[in-house]
Amino acid sequence: MAIFCSKINAAERGHVNPIISAQQLSKHYRVHRGRPDSLKEAVVRREKHRTSSEFWALKDVSLDIKKGSFFGLIGHNGSGKTTLLKLMAGIHNPSSGELKVNGRVSALLELGSGFHPELSGRENIYLNGAILGLTRKEMDLAVNEIIEFSDIGEFIDAPVKILSSGMYVRLGFAVAVHVAPEILLIDEVIAVGDEAFQRKCLEHLYELRRTGTTIVLVSHSLPLVEGLCDEVGWLDHGALMQSGEATEVCWAYLDSVNAQEAEKLRDEEDDPVHTDTSLTEIEVRRGSGEIRIFHVDYLDGQWLANPLPSSGDTLVIRLWYEAETSVENPVFAMKIHHATGVHLASPNSALQQLETGSIAAGRGYVDFIIDKLALLAGDYLLSTSITDPDRMHVHDAWERSHSLRIVPGSSPEREGLADLLGKWQPPVPHEKGSPGHPNR
Amino acid sequence: MNLAAALTSANRYAPLVRNFAGRELKARYKRSLLGWTWSLLSPMSTILVYSLVFSVFFRAAPPAAGNGSQNFAVFLFTGLVVWLLFAGMINGSMGWLIAIGDLRRKVFFPPETAIFGSALALAVQSAIEAGVLVVVMLFIGNLGPTTLALPLVLVLAGFFGLGIGFFVCVLNTHYRDMQYLVGIVLNAVFFLVPIVYPLGIIPERHWGLPIRKIVELNPINQFVTAARESAYLLQWPSISRWFALLGYSLAVFALGWRFFARRSMQLSEDM
Known about the structure:
The structure holds 2 protein chains of 2 kinds.
Chain A: H1 2-15, E1 18-33, H2 39-44, E2 51-66, E3 70-74, H3 81-89, E4 96-101, E5 105-108, H4 121-131, H5 136-150, H6 165-178, E6 183-187, H7 195-210, E7 214-218, H8 222-228, E8 231-236, E9 239-245, H9 246-270, E10 285-286, E11 291-299, E12 315-323, E13 327-328, E14 331-338, E15 343-345, E16 358-359, E17 362-370, E18 378-387, E19 394-406
Parallel strand pairs in A: 3-7, 3-8, 5-6, 6-7
Antiparallel strand pairs in A: 1-2, 1-4, 8-9, 10-19, 11-12, 12-17, 13-16, 14-15, 14-18, 18-19
Helix pairs in contact in A: 4-5, 5-6
Chain B: H1 3-28, H2 37-57, H3 72-99, H4 101-104, H5 111-140, H6 149-174, H7 177-192, H8 211-217, H9 219-231, H10 239-270
């Protein structure tokens, strides 16, 4: 059986040629301390021991990215994600190992990457096209689409240095996706820009993918990565921890992050450190830990992952729990705060007399279904908790642990925080009515 | 890199080189009233001042031109066209490489495309100066078939300067002293080479050294002299001089390019 399986896998692998293939890829940077910046220093300090240490940004990374796939790269800050993208983009050379990239690469590494500040948007579009090896004719065709997509209007002929940061990002994204790349590398840029543009970007990425573009995305937003990507690579201190099916790798990564956090919490209990953070940045976790929430997913009415729920539509908040021992009839609760700190709602399962029964050790989830999301577009924070039935003992309470970004949807309301779901009625003429005494 | 690969990549990046050149030309006199006129006014003022100082104050007499007249300003102009191209390549290369640093950190393209692009823009500027020179020569009736050799001398001088430019721009990314050093050296060489004065005013021997011979054999003087011979004296430069020009420019360009190409990938990490 095992032999049979491995045969199939080999055959499958033979079918799909990787468009990017890395073999034992390593990259080290020399970190110069006291490196001479001038000739004089270089001469004067020659005999002294020069302190330069090596920093390995990537160590022995081997991975294949299939043609036409959507590949995510996750990992904490400084784990080597951006370095890997830079190697793929050809900006830096690997120190050792082999990297094959078979296709025209367009990279969006930093905001407005590849823009010359003194040139106008239009000139920059042509410059970028020329860098990517497109002919002037091809660019003439693309330029109108880019202007339309970026929606910056007459500013296209102004030097890009005067553009607002939003315009800059939009133009950068528009150029990167419209130069007909075979491989698109994106580093944490979708998180910038307003909601409408974000949605437009996501839609466009889907569109590109349908036409066969391979996309590599670096992001810290796990729901986004999990929702968008087919496969994910998880980097930690330059080493590839795991690579494969998106959900699986994201879970493994989350487990490790949670384990690290729990360890940190245990350490901090002995020596509590009070850090002064603003309200929205508080992230406190307490509880005895027999059962914990380890992940929150957002789904839409079709039970599909939807990292950006829309106002007025169905939202399912799925709380994934992991129990260490069996727990009797726990109460699941949430708190929703607006990003400004306003406390908006506190749904909990006990108020609805939900009998959760006996939960055995292991993983599972609880869904909270909102038929019509009454919150308007904006950024919200979600706190989760699990307590015993009397709400005296806290198993797990995680304050403002998850962000919830709501985008405009079918709700026509735009201002304020909530759609009250009320209905206006036609005016009724009534000369003799008695205001203040409606029933008289 | 073999020749076929070099040609393919040259073809692939030709539009980019043109784009960089166009950008350089367009951006140069943005927001100035006189615009491109400045590119002619500045050499003209140099010619005026030096003509006044050297021909009037110091009474340096230029050799007779091809048509027998003696015109210090035109004599100076001919040498200056070559010098401005040569020095512009060396001085410019450092700025060109630094200017693309930010771009190069974000998107891949060979850094030499920017240098070739800017060099092309400088060549265009030099061609305009040479054009003005030819018009002036036409005006004073000092044109001949040998004038046709001037563009070739300029091209060779350009490659000679660019070769040195490739060296200094790489060194400048490591040590910013380079730009100051280059400024001083170029300033010294400008006066050590007979551009603003005729070779004849240098004494043949001094401190027991044949200093006129030393200055005369200096590579930069070879280019300046070749330009003077063809456009001012209206003589064909000798075959040996042509070989010297060709040898200097090809050797220096090839060495500079080799030096640059070996380090170009490392540059984006150092810039």
